[in-house]
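Let us practice reading a record.
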Amino acid sequence: MEQTKQTEEKKISIWARLVLLIGILIVLFTCAFTMGAIYLDMAGVQTTGTLLNVAKCSGSKTCWTGKVEFKTNGGEEISFYPQTNRFIFDLDGYATEGYRVVDVRYLESFPNIAKVNLIYKLEYLNKVTWTLLGSVIAFFGWVATRKKSIVLDFSKGKK
């Protein structure tokens, strides 16, 4: 009886481990993309491109899908879909019905790796949000995989 009680306490749900793994992966991928964006800011070639709304909406829906087109210094035309929310483009004032000129940074050796430079580096707001989301998910997974409960004792600070 004593042995079955110990095995029940040690059993951790597969869902708890999966939540922990998903949270850790979100944080790791976001950190990798952030390092890539910082590298592009430091070593990438700067040019201008046009931001277009290429969404196909049906009915009375309002939708937006940004696409950036730019020319490299060698004359090659490149287009890419920035991984930035429309909300962040709205903060910057670029997302409108027509097209706008945006600053683009790209790798000269591989121009398909590119990013949009926004005012006040607003594109990093998206990465901070994903990092915080991944951290919260990983925290909940970590709490669920712990064998001991977490106790918050605030009475020690009132002396």
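A brief commentary: The first strand starts at residue 45 and ends at 53.
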